[in-house]
Amino acid sequence: MSIEISTQIIHNSYAAVINKIDPNANIYDNPNQQGTAYPAWFIVHRSPVEVMRDFGKRYGGNRYTLTYQIDIWYMIQQNIPRLYDQYTAVAEQLDEQLEYLPIFGSDAVVHVYDKSWSLELNSMKYSTTLRLRVCRNNPDYFNEKTIDVITTEMFLKSKFP
To answer: Facing residues of 66 across strands?
Structure first.
């Protein structure tokens, strides 16, 4: 069974995890300038989504690796007691909940790589990386041709007469 993957589905997947940790959270797909209600969560791409084609003709040549590098920014009211402790507690919950990211709208999960967090600009930044092996919908991608094997003797003979 195949599932659909898109940037919006990935964002919804992160939002579902954030909602488990903080049901009263205000979750934003993009940074906003004014009127932010706290606690606020922002789902931001650290770099553009990378699409790399897999080599070979397997599955009709329609296999790709998608890499999402996403930062989750968490902001609460400033100048309150134990601010660092509150950010640490949330980061630890994210560590626990984001070992595998459940894909929104399906039963699939994806391993989350390169998790780290830090305090920046009076907020907590939690960085993650997702690497997904995907293929485009192609009704006959299971039709593989056999591969001809070339022996090393051919190369050796041409190099050393």
So the answer is: 51, 132
Q: End-to-end alpha-carbon separation of the chain, Å?
A: 53
Cα separation, 20 vs 129, in Å, equals 20
Render pLDDT for 31-80 as a digit per residue (tens, 0 to 9). Answer: 776 778 888 999 999 888 888 887 655 555 677 888 999 999 999 887 78
User: Environment class of residue 137 by beta-carbon count within 10 Å: exposed (0-12), middle (13-18) or buried (19+)?
Assistant: exposed
Show the CA angle centred on residue 95, arms to residues 21 and 82, nearest 5°. Answer: 65
Task: Indicate the pTM of the whole model.
Answer: 0.78
Report yes or no: 16 and 104 within 8 Å, Cβ to Cβ: yes
